Amino acid sequence: MPETLSATRRQLLTGLVATAAFAQTQETISIPGKQSMLVHNDRPEDLETPLSGLNTWITPNDLFFVRQHLPRPRVNEGQYRLTLDGKVNRPLQLTLADLRKLPQYTLAATLECTGNARGFFRPRVPGIQWGRGAIGNAEWSGPRLSDVLKMAGANLDSTYATFNGADVGVAKTPDFIRSLPMKKSLHPATLLALKMNGEAIPDIHGFPVRLIVPGWDGTSWVKWVTSITVADEPNTGFFMDPAYRFPKHPGAPGVAIDPSDLEVIEGMPVKSFITSPTDQESVPLSKTTIRGVAWAGEEKIEAVHISTDGGSRWEEAQLSPQKLAFAWRLWSYEWQPPKQGYYNLLSRSTDSAGRVQPVVAAWNPSGYLYSAIDKIGVVVEKGA
Ligand SMILES: Nc1nc2c(c(=O)[nH]1)N[C@H]1C(S)=C(S)[C@@H](COP(=O)(O)O)O[C@H]1N2
Ligand SMILES: [Mo]
């Protein structure tokens, strides 16, 4: 019977697909809890969150994306020391216990990789071809960076603090070192986090101490922080220059940009994307809830607009109550399709500074800060 045959074939196919995916994750992901992630690289791990994992305000640690350039270090809690040096009156070596004794603050902040959604740039650019999921929102807890700097008697007129983590350079990849302007370092929301969503920071997310730079792209959020050096110049290593820089003025797509026309990325654009339904999914004619997230770096999300007709008409989506700087807002829109067929669904966010998501993202040679209006296609089926 054809029906049985197709059912069997379908079972067989999904069975095969499932087994292959399972075998792959089993082989490559030995990180507890991270089995459902999309694997871009396995050594070191670069893992993307599936869209189904981005429909909650807090992203669980097990579903949080991972990006690292170097083999992941394992830091021994007892032996851990945080060194403070450079332009400080009292060079310090702090233990975890010292950091735990300081006043602890908790805040929600969205962490997004600078290269998130790089895979959408045309012409294509080299680098991890992230989809939408190199992003997550978590609650981070720990002392303020400013309190730690003041403990060491840091010269607060110095212009930078430079952070090194326990990971070290290998082969052609240099050590991961980042500098943060003193102004942002002294911001009360900039933390040395000891906890992520109420638990000790997981190894893969920077145990035991990671820098939280709310509203700025993920590159500054140094993991496994072991030293902070106060200085009047930024570090000049690879991860400050030439990496993670953005054109000072827009360049033509596909055209190289002179390094002197690039600058360090500070802050993030206004963004939104659709998490459900997913691109090319079939949805019923009855009713569909379109969902997604929106965020705006140091600003707040003011509105999200949805178009279900390719951008002719726009309607306002419902926003979750959290109107905060640094953290994303979830949004939803109840859609009653007029009839069956193929629809282009778009989402566009507006923030408290009046920034609006553009139709076209600013192309740049490294594929950073993709921020165009999101677009997916869905098939509305009568019987679905
Ligand atoms: N020490 C160290 N910190 C790091 C990195 C790294 O490679 N080494 N990668 C950065 C980048 S580019 C991003 S996007 C975030 C990713 O954080 P996550 O893996 O916890 O999601 O960590 C940042 N901090
Ligand atoms: Mo990143």
Describe the structure.
This protein is mainly β and 384 residues long. It has 2 domains: 12-264, Sulfite Oxidase, Chain A, domain 2 (Alpha-Beta Complex); 271-381, Sandwich (Immunoglobulin-like), CATH 2.60.40.650. It has 4 helices and 24 strands. The strands form 7 sheets. A 5-stranded mixed sheet has the order 4-3-13-7-8. Strands 17-24-23-19-20 form a 5-stranded mixed sheet, with no helix packed on it. It is globular, with a radius of gyration of 22 Å. The chain starts with a helix and ends with a strand. The relative contact order is 0.14. Molybdenum atom (MO) binds at residues 67, 113-115, 218-219. The site of the ligand Nc1nc2c(c(=O)[nH]1)N[C@H]1C(S)=C(S)[C@@H](COP(=O)(O)O)O[C@H]1N2 has 19 residues, from loops.
Secondary structure category: mainly beta
Helicity level, as a percent range?
A: 10-25%
Which ligands does the model contain, each kind named once?
the ligand Nc1nc2c(c(=O)[nH]1)N[C@H]1C(S)=C(S)[C@@H](COP(=O)(O)O)O[C@H]1N2, molybdenum atom
What is the rounded distance between the termini? 24 Å
- Arithmetic mean pLDDT: 92
CATH superfamily of the largest domain: Oxidoreductase, molybdopterin-binding domain
Q: Tell me about the biggest sheet?
A: 5 strands, mixed
Report strand %: 25-35%
Radius of gyration: 22 Å
The tally of strands reads 24
SS summary, helix count: 4
CATH class of the largest domain: Alpha Beta
Question: Under the CATH scheme, which architecture of the largest domain would be assigned?
Answer: Alpha-Beta Complex
Stated plainly, the CATH topology of the largest domain is called Sulfite Oxidase, Chain A, domain 2
SSE order in H/E notation? HEEEEHEEHEEHEEEEEEEEEEEEEEEE
Widest sheet: strand ordering: 4-3-13-7-8
Please tell me what the overall shape is.
globular
